[in-house]
Predict the 3D structure of the following.
Amino acid sequence: MPLIVMCGYPCCGKTRRAEELKDYFEKNTERKVYVVGDGALDVDKNSVYADSQKEKNVRAALKAEVERKVNKDDVVILDSLNYIKGYRYELFCLIKHTQTPHCLVYCLTSGEVSSAWNSERDTAEQYTQDIFDALVLRFEAPDSRNRWDSPLFTILKDDTLPYEAISDALFKRKAPPPNQSTQSQPLSSTNFLYELDKITQEVLMVIFNAQKTSVPGDLLTVPGATEKISFLTCLHFHILIFNESQSPKIVIFPPSLLEYRIKQSVCRRTHCTQNNLYLTDLNSVLNIELTRSINMAELRKLRRQFISYTKMHPTENTGQISNMFVQYLNKSLR
């Protein structure tokens, strides 16, 4: 149910505008229209706004009534002061949870005009001057730049309501997406967490043990996964290039095992393949040094990150966990 939040000073014409909107939607649509306001609670407004706890209870009651009536079909109009931006944000979170649009109608008048209208009311319906002045001072004007105050329709006392624009904002606009934290977690199999923990630990051990015998460019096969893990790994060694006519000789000490970084002194251009290193300047010496090894601590850290993410996005097919973890590692270890 789309929600219309009325907002403005006391006695600024909110109730009149709410009734006009109710009449318009009832005549031009087949939707039901509900008006939720202070009047339905049958409370003394002066005593309520003089006591912060009573005021908080009234706001909670109004919000609860809106929450009971809100859905995706009909229209709810909240006819109250709604002068606290934090409260308007709570209403915004409510409509995000129900995935329905909303808009804010701001009845803009000066304090003097609202005070004059207040004095014209029956004595039983008037705000006392002290309460009226306090509410005007506490009023937090809406700002269309805030998502909880948008779309915002500002109405002056002599303006005609933009019925079509309000209708389009409610029925032709996409509802804001709900917060991920408010959504129910997807259902997963009863042994999902056990399988997740077991499979990722097995992958870690395969990778850790395979590093001992791997050479640069090897693809590590992980049981249960079609994806493979690739490493460019080598140990500190020296490459000596001797310029002998057109056939340079290359001597490498010792075989490569761990990830490397190339430091060149004279070389202008290099190109590496799995087993060879080619240089355009052949009179040079290269040092390839160990920068880091992929140890178990780093692998465990990546595993914890993957498990945390997968708990929030479980898969129904536990057979895909190995592939997902291998893909995650390949991207993280680049």
